[in-house]
């Protein structure tokens, strides 16, 4: 049995949704896979209906452990099983590890990653085999609507620590940037409602300082929504702030001051209703997402498990 460990935390999180998505794909492709939760009866809301196992690991199982749970890795390091890691973010890798320990001390055999950036860090530092699994976007939720967008700026609330500071700067420059534009904090929405807001918004603001794949930015780009903010380090190969391939309005991660300067021309055009000069960036953003399909995700995941089960 393939078991994907998932924490018993009821929250909207792309990483935990990815675990359920993998298990759903594997079962539909004939593999025996389940989500591994600790507490009987716990199920993550708004996810596919997949098999769930509660706290039971049997001999010869393969347990997949997210990168932020080295305690679980340590706990099961001597079980008669195989242990894989799945890394959805670079920032948790060494923040959560004890000093002078890495995954090799926990008998982790190999790691699945969602971006080359994460894979390079793991392979370079731990010399563990890494395997890229495409993170597919749900095309039924994330697409460009052929209706006018609204003067909305949306952002993920749990990653919005710097948003108030940015808004204060922009208000000082021009109160209309705040008063005549609706700023929407995305929190506790179902994915259907979350996606609907993204599709209708003119701007998606990413002020997270640490992301793996910047999947929220890719979702916004797929919707023809202008991404503005940081590359969050993990998006350095995906988000382009200059040149002919520019696909977003970008400032150095953490520098919300420079971001306010970069945002002002966009907000001026938004208020005037003339976004013509931003259309190439929107088109490049949509093009950036073309390889992040569910078909590519399924193909890469099934190939991995066929090779390593």
**Overall mean pLDDT:** 96
Distance between the termini: 10 Å
CATH topology of the largest domain: Rossmann fold
Question: Sheet bearing the most strands, described?
Answer: 7 strands, parallel
Q: What spatial form do the alpha-carbon principal axes imply?
A: elongated
Q: What's the SSE pattern?
A: EHEEEHEHEHEEHHEHEHEEHHH
Structural class: alpha/beta
Protein name: Glycosyl transferase family 1 domain-containing protein
Organism: Candidatus Magnetoglobus multicellularis str. Araruama
Architecture overview:
The chain starts with a strand and ends with a helix. The chain is of the alpha/beta class and 309 residues long. It has 2 domains: 2-136 and 293-308, Glycogen Phosphorylase B (Rossmann fold, 3-Layer(aba) Sandwich), CATH 3.40.50.2000; 150-288, Rossmann fold, CATH 3.40.50.2000. The chain contains 11 helices and 12 strands. Helix 5 (163-173) crosses helix 9. Helix content is 36%, strand content 17%. The chain has a 7-stranded parallel beta sheet with strand order 3-2-1-4-5-6-7, sandwiched between helices. Strands 9-8-10-11-12 form a 5-stranded parallel beta sheet, sandwiched between helices.
